[in-house]
Amino acid sequence: MDESQGGSDPNRRRQIRHEYRDLITQLNNQEDDNPESLNKTLATADKLYEEVLQTKSAGIAALDAVLLHSASTVTYQNAQKLVVDNKFEPRQFTEKLVTLLTGRRNTGNNQREVNVKKEAWKDFGKDVQCCFRRAPPFHFMLGSFDRGPPVQKPKPPTDRQGAKPDGPAVVPVQIDETGKSQQEVTTEEVERMLGILKQLTMGDSQDEVEPISYFEFVINPQSFSHTIENIFHMSFLVKDGHVQIKLDEDGLPVVYPSQPFNPQEHNEEVPRKQLVLSMDMREWKEIVEVFEISEPTIPPREDKKARKKKNRAVSR
Predict the structure, then answer these.
(1) Of 247, 230, 211, residue with least CA distance to 301
(2) What is the pLDDT of residue 4?
(3) What phi and psi, each to the nearest 5 degrees, are found at residue 244?
(4) How many degrees, rounded to 5, is the angle at CA 71 between CA 68 and CA 74?
């Protein structure tokens, strides 16, 4: 906001800022807890604030807010230093209250009951209502009542004769064959993949092995999910030593069957290597186009419904 608004003198506005900064410095450097000094500072700030309203300066109003914050901090610190030794005595309070309401002094030795008029209570309530912002909560003078254990309600008797008849009996469905677990399915797929790899790479002699491209073997150009399954199953074959992976002359991975590692046949420890392979949908499509893969080398397995449908067609 432009400080020229309000028609006040710029020199006076500059002087007000200077006075506000002096008051803030005095509050921050004040070491004693003298309330008169604090009251004097706040009174000076009130007079300055009247001129702030005339100048309509946002910068000076911000200094006034900083001053009030510093004053509240100093007041809170002084309140924390106070030591209150006053202890509430219910008997003394009762004696003073009875004297105020009835006009007669009631000593502690006199334990008789005192009747207080209704009008006296009303007048007393009007006198003290300015000390409370809201009505005090109701509580028992001698503590809460002991309710005792909860009373258990008796349950109504069940009318078996008037009950509605049940529906038709439910017969459990007879299951012809139990479903295979995921581990059994994975084992079958790994064995099936190894059999397909041996048929493609081994010749007439078991010693002659011709490696096959890794991508052409595991990629299914028609299904990205089946490709990921093939890569997952291939990892088990490589881990157990049934399949080995190496790079050909072009630096591309090829796979071929091998004999599992037998620790008893080797005296030295063979180091193990681990490779993390990641493939997304875009990379899968690029591999299919570069290697010109049109048909999957590993056909996807048939589910139970497809096998039943195929068996019914053959039987007909």
Answers:
(1) 230
(2) 42
(3) -120, 150
(4) 155
